[in-house]
């Protein structure tokens, strides 16, 4: 490849990376960037962007030229070449949007653990235009790549064509792949029937993901809605009243007054999506909590696993505190120690931990 070709390829990667940061998938949940946008009428400085790991070696002129030459029109750069902002309006993140996203997405595994994001992008771009790639990682401190991904293509037809492909390989590794919808259907069936292995698509899937299966069997499916946007005085009771339905009862709300987001937990697998649809229909597709419009989505995949993992950890901590509190009560009864009013010295339970998003 000649030098000009290398330069153009490199600039395309820069433009794509920046547009990912400000894209529909990342920006709505990127608290740091959203805060920066509020500070300067939607603008973010080049200095700020160059603190990001994948941009820190860049220079202003190169970033600006890359966006102007290879960008899709998502971003605008000021005349001084010192800051930029998104110019296309954000889509409304609702049930229809999430359903369309899932229908354009696939699950694929079989990649070596050493695979990089750049390598994945190059592989999937050869199959269609990619909107987003999620590298699934372990839950320990190392957060190693597990060899499986969720990929969203620009169109449903591209996703369908990928799943219909025959015997796809990556560096001689045979890949297992299916639609994202089929992947979660398989996981729900495992949870209900105690079976192992996701529902295969045709004969592409010749192995089982034991690690995923073991973890998923412990993780309820489709019970949790995430909400973002709540008035300052919103209470748990407000949320329960809004989201409890005759058919779908709210079992728990992870939220404290003053928070801007939280989680709503229902009783049975699959209830969250049905309840969300019913709540939106009841409220003409706009839900408000104390005057603030609320964005809603059903959590799934790694986010869902992370939620239940942290919920269990908090439950175990709370149970241990209660045990210690019981022992202190016994000591007090026998005159050994404790508050004179007979109450436990236990601290109140901490707020439910929130999973990473």
Provide an overview of this structure:
It is a single chain. Helix content is 41%, strand content 18%. It is built from twelve helices and 14 strands. The protein has a five-stranded antiparallel β-sheet. A four-stranded antiparallel β-sheet has the order 5-6-4-9. A three-stranded antiparallel β-sheet has the order 1-3-2. A hairpin with a 2-residue loop joins β7 (169-170) and β8. The radius of gyration is 24 Å and the shape is globular. It starts with a helix and ends in a 24-residue tail after the last helix.
List the SSEs and their pairings.
Elements: H1 3-21, H2 31-39, E1 43-45, H3 46-49, H4 60-70, E2 75-77, E3 83-86, H5 95-103, E4 105-109, H6 117-125, E5 130-137, E6 145-153, H7 156-164, E7 169-170, E8 173-174, E9 176-179, H8 180-193, H9 210-217, E10 224-228, H10 236-243, E11 250-254, E12 261-266, H11 271-282, E13 287-289, E14 292-298, H12 301-333
Antiparallel strand pairs: 1-3, 2-3, 4-6, 4-9, 5-6, 7-8, 10-12, 10-14, 11-12, 13-14
Helix pairs in contact: 1-4
Short description:
With 357 residues, the chain is α+β, with helices and mostly antiparallel strands. It is built from 12 helices and 14 strands.
Overall pLDDT level: 80
The rough form would be described as globular
Q: Describe the strand arrangement of the main beta sheet, using strand numbers.
A: 11-12-10-14-13
Compute the separation of the termini in Å. 39 Å
Query: Sheet bearing the most strands, described?
Result: 5 strands, antiparallel
H-E string = HHEHHEEHEHEEHEEEHHEHEEHEEH
Structural class: alpha+beta
Strand content: 15-25%
Number of helices: 12
How much is the radius of gyration in Å? 24 Å
Enumerate the spans where pLDDT stays under 50 for 5 or more consecutive residues.
195-217, 331-357
Task: Count the E strands.
Answer: 14
In terms of quaternary structure, what is this? single chain
Helix content: 40-55%
């Amino acid at each position: 490849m000649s030098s000009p070709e290398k330069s153009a390829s490199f600039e395309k990667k820069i433009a794509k990376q920046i547009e990912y940061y400000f894209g529909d998938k990342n920006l709505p949940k990127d608290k740091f960037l959203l805060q920066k946008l509020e500070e300067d009428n939607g603008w973010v400085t080049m200095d700020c962007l160059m603190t990001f790991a994948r941009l820190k070696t860049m220079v202003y002129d190169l970033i600006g030229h890359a966006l102007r030459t290879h960008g899709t029109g998502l971003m605008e750069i000021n005349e001084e070449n010192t800051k930029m902002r998104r110019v296309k309006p954000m889509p409304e993140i609702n049930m229809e949007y999430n359903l369309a996203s899932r229908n354009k997405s696939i699950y694929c595994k079989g990649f070596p653990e050493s695979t990089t994001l750049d390598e994945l992008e190059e592989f999937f771009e050869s199959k269609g235009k990619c909107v987003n790639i999620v590298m699934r990682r372990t839950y320990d401190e190392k957060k190693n790549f597990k060899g499986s991904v969720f990929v969203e293509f620009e169109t449903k037809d591209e996703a369908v064509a990928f799943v219909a492909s025959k015997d796809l390989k990556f560096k001689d590794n045979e890949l297992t792949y299916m639609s994202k919808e089929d992947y979660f259907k398989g996981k729900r069936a495992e949870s209900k029937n105690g079976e192992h292995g996701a529902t295969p698509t045709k004969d592409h899937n010749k192995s089982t993901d034991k690690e995923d299966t073991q973890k998923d069997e412990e993780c309820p499916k489709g019970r949790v809605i995430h909400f973002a946007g709540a008035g300052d005085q919103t209470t748990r009771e407000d949320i329960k009243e809004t989201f409890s339905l005759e058919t779908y009862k709210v079992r728990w709300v992870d939220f404290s007054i003053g928070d801007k987001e939280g989680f709503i937990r229902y009783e049975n697998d699959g209830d969250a999506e049905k309840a969300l649809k019913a709540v939106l229909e009841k409220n003409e597709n706009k839900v408000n909590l104390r005057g603030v419009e609320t964005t809603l989505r059903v959590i799934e995949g790694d986010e869902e696993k992370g939620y239940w993992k942290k919920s269990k950890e908090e439950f175990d901590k709370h149970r241990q505190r209660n045990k210690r509190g019981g022992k202190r009560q016994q000591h007090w009864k026998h005159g050994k120690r404790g508050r004179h009013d007979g109450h436990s010295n236990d601290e109140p339970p901490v707020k439910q931990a929130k999973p990473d998003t």
